[in-house]
Write a structure and sequence with these properties.
With about 425 residues, the protein is α+β, with helices and mostly antiparallel strands. Helix content is about 40%, strand content about 20%. It contains 13 helices and 18 strands. The strands form five sheets. An eight-stranded mixed beta sheet has the order 1-11-12-13-16-10-9-4. A three-stranded antiparallel beta sheet has the order 5-7-6. Helix 2 crosses helix 3, helix 3 runs antiparallel to helix 4 and helix 8 packs across helix 13. The chain is elongated.
Length: about 425
């Protein structure tokens, strides 16, 4: 949720943000009008209630015609106060509904446009020239079959489309990635957390996943619980309705969870393999910090993502995501995209977002410092989304015989193994 005082002070900035996102700037004026109705109805209720209290003190002291007149006015006020209270509640609910529909204020400098209007900030590493090496690279599906690492057929048989089993070295590779990610997170002071996969509606709405992203969320209607698409959701809600001591900030958590996504709207996209699936595991970084520290913290999260990808010896690029592709909660987002040889392009493997105070206001996560009590800033960043990282490792480090060379950083977590070898025929 945006800061209504900031909106009232500078509505043009919010209109510009809406336009940059490709969303309706008229919503800003609807929110302002609803907020004005809320404030005026609240003032009317307070005025009538004050008069009612005053009459309550006068009536016992009055006599005769004066008392009768006061009693008549008291009866009138009782109805008026009840109506004003209802009007106040209705106006407050309408103002909240509209405010929840307004996306976060885009940070200055974010590229305008949609999904294809990102800005490339840097390239790290150089993609291999397989032609010069004398062989055609296999895709991760073929490599997974050769290595006995990925079983798509049985995944589909048991669970349907976009499902899979990681088997043998595939499962070991995921465990190794998990250990490496947690090891790195611990070295930077993160607290490891295994988060719930099911959350209440308030947690899902508070993080902004019941807006634009609602179509991709699994809902258990009988229990009114949601399966999370990322541990960002339970981590953001971890300190819901709490006031944090500013001296304890930043609070950094590394959440490990299964992630569930419907992948609605992705018909025909990435139907082969494990790039776009309904369930995967992920280590997610999450930070609560003071608002004035948020941009610097965002760069730190990006730096830790880049470090992890570099340790896996993957060629990748960093992009500044355009406003229309941010999602409602993010003020700015950087993606790291690994090179996928058989697709001949870069694909997203990590993402980090600065959500400023947007989620914190919705979840009532605040901090107390010398300036009083105010919302914190929340930030999130993928450290390792397992399936996509496995795809990138298999394809980039494959060898002509179908084996895969393991990055040095992973070897200690795989018993010192240097190569994944094809299964014996």
């Amino acid at each position: 949720m945006i800061d209504l005082r900031e909106l009232r002070d500078d509505p043009d900035r919010f209109r510009a943000s809406q336009r940059a996102r490709g969303e309706d700037p008229a919503l800003v004026d609807q929110v302002l009008a609803a907020d004005e109705r809320r404030r005026s109805s609240s003032l009317r209720f307070d005025t009538l209630r004050s008069e009612q209290r005053g009459l309550g003190k006068q009536i016992p002291k009055a006599t005769g015609e004066e008392k009768a007149a006061l009693l008549e006015r008291a009866n009138e006020l009782a109805g008026a106060v009840k109506a004003a209270d209802a009007e106040q509640s209705e106006a407050a609910e309408e103002a909240r509904r509209l405010a929840l529909a307004l996306s976060n204020l885009v940070e200055e400098g974010v590229p305008e446009g949609g999904e294809d209007d990102y800005k490339v900030l840097e390239h790290v590493g150089t993609p291999r020239d397989f032609t010069a090496e004398g062989f055609e690279p296999r895709d991760h599906v073929e490599l997974g079959r050769i290595l006995g690492a990925i079983d798509l057929e049985r995944g589909a048989k048991v669970s349907g489309a976009r499902q899979y089993y990681l088997t043998g070295v595939g499962a070991l590779l995921e465990f190794a990635l998990l250990n490496l990610a947690i090891q790195q997170a611990l070295s930077y002071g993160f607290t490891p957390v295994v988060t719930p996969s099911l959350v209440k509606p308030g947690a899902m709405q508070g993080t902004g996943f019941l807006g634009q992203a609602a179509e991709n969320v699994y809902h258990l209607a009988e229990d009114d619980l949601y399966l999370v698409g990322t541990s960002e959701v339970p981590l953001a809600a971890y300190h819901m309705d709490e006031i944090l001591d500013a001296s304890a900030l930043p609070l950094r958590y590394a959440g490990y969870s299964s992630c569930y996504r419907r992948e609605a709207g992705s018909y025909g996209k990435d139907t082969r393999g494990i790039i776009r699936v309904h369930q995967f595991e992920k280590v997610e970084m999450f930070s609560f910090c003071a608002p004035e520290e948020a941009q610097e913290e965002h760069r730190r999260l990006l730096g830790w993502e880049k470090e992890f990808l570099s340790r896996l010896e993957l060629p990748f690029r960093v992009i500044d995501v355009a406003a229309g592709d941010l999602g409602s909660s993010a003020a700015r987002k950087f993606d790291c995209e690994a090179w996928i040889p058989t697709q001949g392009r870069y694909r997203e493997v990590t993402s980090t977002s600065n959500c400023t105070g947007f989620q914190a206001r919705r979840l009532s996560v605040r901090m107390r410092d010398a300036d009083g009590v105010r919302p914190v800033a929340t930030l999130n960043g993928t450290l390792c989304a397992m399936t996509r990282m496995i795809v990138a490792i298999l394809e980039n480090h494959q060898q002509a015989d179908g084996s895969v060379r393991l990055p040095e950083a992973l070897r200690p977590h795989l018993g010192g193994r240097e190569v994944l070898s094809p299964l014996a025929k």
